[in-house]
Design a protein that fits this description.
Blueprint: H1 18-45, H2 53-58, E1 67-68, E2 71-72, H3 76-89, H4 91-111, H5 114-125, E3 131-134, E4 150-154, E5 157-168, E6 175-182, E7 185-192, E8 198-202, E9 214-225, H6 237-271, E10 273-274, E11 277-278, H7 283-312, H8 317-341, H9 353-363, H10 370-382
Parallel strand pairs: 3-6
Antiparallel strand pairs: 1-2, 4-5, 5-9, 6-7, 8-9, 10-11
The structure holds 3-thiaglutaryl-CoA and flavin-adenine dinucleotide.
Flavin-adenine dinucleotide binds next to strand 3, strand 5 and helix 10.
């Protein structure tokens, strides 16, 4: 019998098209050759690896699902594989791609005017214009309907006041997609760096997502032209529609983190000799490794089927919630367990596990906390809204 691939026990690769495999392999090569060598240093120094952005853009990884406007027009499974390979390196790298693609380019593409698409999307695909997405506010991210940020019409402009919290890419961004209450309902505005009264302040002392920029955004009477309002959506379904896109990608990303951690401990436990035999020869260790592989396999199948449903146009938000909940929980548990198996070595960033473990503490919170996704599923099952 052929030896199985420990990181693809159900041969999910055989369910991918040639194009999907090619994309996965080329992103994997980029990650191994260019991103892996620098990531621990960036995490230690709490810096985002901005030097990688031109190559990420060159490979067509920004807004990869969009047709036209300089974008690659790939399918959803390919986008998922991009997220998986990026997060095999670091959640921060995947976050950058998620935010730019699903939270900034997607709303311009889905809710913007033709002029807005022409104005921003090609530069964003090229990595020359960086975006951020401002929905969360400090008084409660799980309940965005309760936002305080508001916009008031003033002639041909809008006046935006308020603030946003925990915004990925905030201090890197040239534009911010900001969701604000208006008299007509929640609307999306494209704020530009340098607009008077618009300020980003980086959040320091993070123990998680250290290789990613996270910021607070402040709006003090920011005058925003009507031409910068996304005209084709009103209501919470606007931002939530973007979250569905990003959460879909996030179901794939943590599979990458989990594979990185498992791969590392398979090597480590094979080499490390304790009590006269390799650590991997102990039943207690093999049980743990087997459990990790079982959970990774389930997650791979869940995300692949989700991607196929997305490409077929049948995917529903509740299905995304199940996979986001399952796959992030899977990866967080695996990263924590791998950290333990590495013993003392597991506490430094020389090994991947603790970095992934700390990152996944954010991933389980952002894009809907684990509880939010559980309650979405509960609502589907019972028909009762428990929020
Ligand atoms: P609810 O009444 O359920 O819905 C309001 C309207 O929105 C529609 N809708 C959705 N549309 C698309 N996708 C979804 N997932 C949707 N969920 C709901 C819904 O049909 C309705 O439309 P309409 O036409 O009837 O008005 O809203 P609710 O206020 O009860 O909220 C439900 C809840 C709690 C699930 C929602 O508020 C929620 O998801 N909260 C969590 C917020 C969240 O995830 N924030 C993430 C911020 S961004 C981020 O974290 C980026 S991290 C990026 C990175 O670095 O990778
Ligand atoms: P809260 O909503 O205050 O939740 C606190 C706790 O209460 C959680 O455990 C939650 O599960 C629980 N809870 C909430 N409601 C209920 C309920 N009804 N029943 C039971 N328990 C409940 N946001 C953006 O808009 N853009 C970004 O780019 C972005 N990037 C981020 C990057 C990082 C690194 C982090 C950490 C966050 C980011 N966020 C971003 C914000 C993120 O989406 C929020 O942190 C998240 O939605 C949770 O909101 P909160 O932190 O205010 O927690």
């Amino acid at each position: 019998m052929a030896k199985l691939n420990p990181f693809d026990l159900y041969d999910v690769a055989s369910l991918l098209s040639e194009e999907e495999l090619m994309i996965k392999d080329s992103v994997a090569r980029f990650v191994d050759e260019r991103a892996m060598p620098v990531i621990a240093k960036h995490f230690d120094e709490a810096t985002f690896p901005q030097e990688l952005v031109p190559e990420i853009a060159e490979m067509g990884l920004l807004g990869s699902s969009i047709e036209g406007y300089g974008c690659a027009g790939l399918n959803s499974v390919s986008y998922g594989l991009i997220c998986q390979e990026m997060e095999r390196c670091d959640s921060g790298l995947r976050s950058f791609v998620s935010v730019q693609s699903s939270l900034c380019m997607y709303p311009i593409y889905a809710y913007g005017s033709e002029e807005q698409k022409q104005r921003w999307l090609p530069g964003m695909a090229a990595g020359e214009i960086i975006g951020c997405f401002g929905l969360t506010e400090s008084h409660g991210g799980s309940d965005p309907a309760n936002m305080k940020t508001h916009a008031r019409r003033d002639g041909d402009d809008w006046i935006v006041n308020g603030s946003k919290m925990w915004i990925t890419n905030g201090n890197l961004a040239d534009i911010a997609i900001v969701w604000a209450k208006t008299e007509q309902g929640i609307m999306g505005f494209v704020l530009e760096k340098g607009m008077s009264g618009f300020e980003a302040r980086e959040i320091k002392s993070k123990m998680s997502l250290r290789a990613s920029v996270t910021s607070e955004l402040y709006f003090d009477n920011v005058r925003v032209p009507e031409a910068n309002r996304l005209p084709n959506v009103v209501g919470l379904k606007g931002p939530l529609g973007c979250l569905t896109q990003a959460r879909y990608g996030i179901t794939w990303g943590p599979i990458g983190s989990a594979i990185a951690c498992l791969s590392e401990v398979i090597d480590y436990t094979s080499d490390r000799v304790l009590f006269g035999r390799p650590l991997a020869a102990n039943q207690a260790i093999q049980l743990r490794l087997a459990d990790m592989a079982r959970r990774i396999t389930s997650a791979q199948l869940l995300s692949l089927q989700l991607g196929r449903m997305k490409d077929a146009g049948t995917m529903q938000p509740t299905q995304v919630s199940i996979a986001k909940w399952n796959n992030v929980r899977m990866a967080l548990d695996i990263a924590r367990d791998c950290r333990d198996i590495l013993g003392g070595s597991g506490i430094t960033t020389e090994y991947h596990a603790i970095r992934h473990m700390l990152n996944l503490e954010s991933v389980i919170t952002y894009e809907g906390t684990e509880t939010v996704h559980q309650l979405v599923v509960g609502r589907e099952l019972t028909g009762i809204n428990a929020f």
